[in-house]
What does this fold into?
Amino acid sequence: MNFEINNSYFGFKLKEKQYVKDIDSLAHVFIHEKSGAKLFYAQNEDDNKVFFVSFKTPPQDDCGTAHILEHSVLCGSSKYVAKDPFNELMKGSLNTYLNALTYADKTMYPVASCNHEDLYNLMDVYMDAVFNPQVVNEKKIFMQEGWHYELNNAEEAITLKGVVYNEMKGALSGPDRVLSNAINQSLFTESIYRFESGGNPEYIPELTYEKFVEFYNKYYHPSNSFFYLYGDMDIEKCLKHINDDYLVKYDAMDTEVKIYDEQVHNSQDVVSDTFAVPSGTKTGNESMLALNFIIGHSTDRLLSLSMDVLSYILLETGASPIKKAIVDKKIAESAEGWFDSSTYQMVFSFVAKNSSFNKIELFKDTVYRTLDQIVKKGLDKALIQSALNYYEFLLKEADYGYRPKGLAYGMNMMKGWLHGASPMESLKVWEHFETMRNGAENGYFENLIKTYFLENTNSSIAAVEAEEGKQERIEENNQKHLKAMKDNMSQEQITQLVKETKDLIEYQSSGDTQEVIEKIPSLSKDDIDKKASFDSYQQLENNGIKELIMPLDTNGIVYTKLMFAVDNVPTELVPYVGLLSRVLGKLDTEKFDYEKLSTQTDMFTGGIYGRLVAYNEKESVTPVLCINAKALMRNIDKMVDIIQQIIFETKFDTQSSLSKIIQDLKVEYERHFDNNGHLSAITRCLALFDEAGAYKDATGGIAFNDFLLTAGDNLEKMAEGLKKVAKLVFAKENLLLLVAAEKNDLQSVCKKFYEIEEKLPMSKAKKQDVKLVKNIDAEAVENGAKVVYNAKAANFIKEGFNYSGKMSVIKNIINTEYLWNEVRVKGGAYGSGCNFSRSGIVYAYSYRDPNVKQTFDNFDNIGNFLSNINLTDREITKYTLGAINVIDRPKSKSDRLELMVSRYYNGMTKEDVQRERDEMLSVTENDVKECAKLFNSVMKSGAICTFGSETKINENKALYKRTRRLYNKC
Ligand SMILES: [Zn+2]
It folds into this structure.
């Protein structure tokens, strides 16, 4: 369709049209004349189509209204009255992305799919949700998703519950989030950015249903909406749909929602807060300090890109001057740059991690003094160039992980579009890199430092420190408050609350009728491709080295992996292999010191880093140390040269560097534990009985963290251990080389590695019988979190069951039907799930969970649920679609490579992959019922692990054989 400027199409008038090279699209900007809605359409060949609708939703307080709305509108609408259409869509659509997100000033409802019909269905469910939600007529949805008092009978104590209430309790407990809130409060005293848009649990209960509905009516109007369409789609059908079914019913509002700037303030008062740690664990050295600046506006794309690059230059590489100054002066163990361009007034923070409050002045002074020196002397030109090269590599690669490319573009565009910038301008990137590159010669970055840091008085200091027993104190206060409230209630009020509680539970437990569920559009089995996709690879042998090569359309990028088997490393040295995988590329080598090494790596590659992976099939584990590297074809010689330095010439004896890397790793792990409690619980749970799980724990989990905690005191011993394992591991017979590149480049890339292959010695060390499994089956790991993460796991192959592709479909049923209802909706946890692995592991877990015993009981009852299940053909199709969809989603190049490797190690052939797909497509109700046997026979005896809140763990002490603290110097 060729749209013409100023013509109208289905109520949409075309205002602008332009080819935008940066996203390889013909971009269109429309305005819906009757309702005032804005719409952007990127026309291109991309099969992974994206739609979203966004609203500007500035918070007015800390009640989390926008966030509760985001949850609630997805709980049923006029056309789709089912209680949870969102979950229905999750179960059985071919979506490649489906989510809803609350930002500091906007709410976004994005969907994506490679299937035309599917995208159209998803769009309709989402539009009906935002324009005609049930929640404005049904208060129970607000109570369930937001907050409510619960009282099951007159004798019990009142409790406070709600999905968002609970989610935010979990989200706000980590030190990073506490600091980020303190930063906003220190910089913004009048602007809306001083509020927590997600909602602060302390204030969420102040939100009334009436205020909530008012907020909806004010902001969820087409005049305040932004539509985004991207990809290969029938655009006329989409525009007609949006107009005829929704927008045509609205008249434009004349008031525009505006976000006002913060006035300049010249004080650098310290705004401080605390985060919770368990009693007896505070050392005084876990504080975080931040020096913050308000930086221009997010409508300035050049400025926001430049700040990203500057943050990288100053704080994120091995050669970054500010990071170096902070760490060398022992102000903190680690330093980072936080640049937030998601707010209209952007924020840059210099963050010192693991520091203390008495170093605030020194910290501030050091940052300013170093910046001043940089401006006077100029930044290292090579450092700037390498940072620009690195960012350009990332742009060229366009790997946005699980997010479709079109969505990543749209999300970036919204930062400017929401505040009035042209969407076209907000998408342009390459021309800004030209500007930065040219400017670098003439002090461009030094000028930024001068203007936005040294001369910027809109700045502040934020600092957070640990507080012992904070969580207990808050819980106690809450309970006291709830008790006082109950004491003041009349008999009538109590009876009323008991009734409300009963009504809500009844509402939640009553299922939707078949008719209601079937209103939600879904696809049929015919929409599924019966043939499994399989990236074929070639196995070769050159110079006695095994090679796997995969031709791939890579936009000129070469991906390589050097995989060294580490099964000749004895038990006592296993943690050192974990450490080795993390220090490679960060220590001095013969030719480059670590700063030069870092600059060279960024200059010529898209990254070189080590990782330890334990591949497991049935009884055996294959641990592998993998060096991952990628670069443009023209830089391949440089890349191989750097890898060579890393493998053969690393100086493990440079203690000062080793000590810094270990500090950095410790900080990284602290953050990992704060953000990934469920993964920590699962890994630890598996470590209790499974060798592969135990290997992962010892080289990258809680056991590895124990090792890191003492590592800094024994640097000599560390260096010795690293040397020993490097000698064992870097041997010819251990190596498997993997190359993925454009077909014509494959041969020559392999040849580039000959020199490395020639140099590798034979090690002849024997395979070791490693025993790492812990001899207990129930463990709890305490930290300062307000919630817990529960995991329960067992081995079903040992109990005589076999893995089948059908399990992926059954898993989908358990997760979306049973665990969603029991653990999330009724239990109040933010999430939960279960999983099966080909090696025979089955596990269930919960995420940000207020319960312990109740959740484990739910896990134990999965078998009962399955044996009593009734499924229609339509439902089975839906779950099959959902399961197939997970497998068929478009993958990034590195993910495809990783999948190929794991198939290689697990011995999965093309036929195996097809067989599993056939199994998935053939699931019957009987198969699902049969699986109950597996759960009934293995779940009750499975191992358990709870990770998180000290209080909750203490209340359930009897469940565990051992309870330990997370940070346990042993
Ligand atoms: Zn949420």
